Amino acid sequence: MLKRLYAWTLSLAQSPHALWALAFVAFVESSFFPIPPDIIMIPMIIAAPRKAFLIAGVATVASVLGGLFGYYIGFALFETIGQPIFDFYGKADAVAEFSEQFNAYGAWAVLIAGVTPFPFKVITIMSGVTALSLPIFIVSAIVARALRFFIVGALLWKFGEPIRDFIERRLGLMFTLFCVLLLGGFALVGFL
Fold it and tell me: What stretches pass through the bilayer (predicted)?
């Protein structure tokens, strides 16, 4: 099923309404959809590099709005919608484990999930469950999603098709390593 969903999502990039399709996928991916918007963004930017930053901007805005919907799911609809989403991603135990400490590090969780391959929707829903400060959530989501989508857009704008393999296979790992090093640096500074 995921393979067909992936293929369908990829096919949207060639639609005459690809920008709207990107906005839709970026919105739903931030709240419940399993396929990331990068799948549409990458071929769109390769086909029209001059629109790279417009495409990244649309993905960012739609993703943050979708994140707000994910927050609402966690805040008001967790039992009916949020819990099944957590079950699907194998994160059902996360609510009990992280609820107490989540808000202390919620901004970091949103930032890290927003740039790494970790499912962003899990964090958006969790933010609503724990009632993370909405301004903190919004600012963190904007920074994280803009960072991710504009870096992808800039790389494709500058290097085109040759950088595609790196983005698809290794950029998530690079973002993850960066976050680990950043957090490790803060922990080290706190320790000293």
Answer: 20-40, 52-73, 136-159, 171-191
Exposed/middle/buried for 174, CB within 10 Å: 0-12, 13-18, 19+? middle
List all residues 6 or more positions away from 114 whose beta carbon is below 8 Å from its beta carbon: 120, 123, 140, 141, 143, 144, 145, 147, 148
The residue type of 175 is: F
Of 13, 82, 43, 9, nearest to 160 (Cα)? 43
Locate 81 and state its tokens: 């919608």
Find, among 115, 119, 129, 128, the residue nearest to 172 by Cα: 115
What are the pLDDT digits (tens) for 73-97?
Answer: 999 998 898 888 888 877 777 677 7
Structure tokens at 33: 């959809």
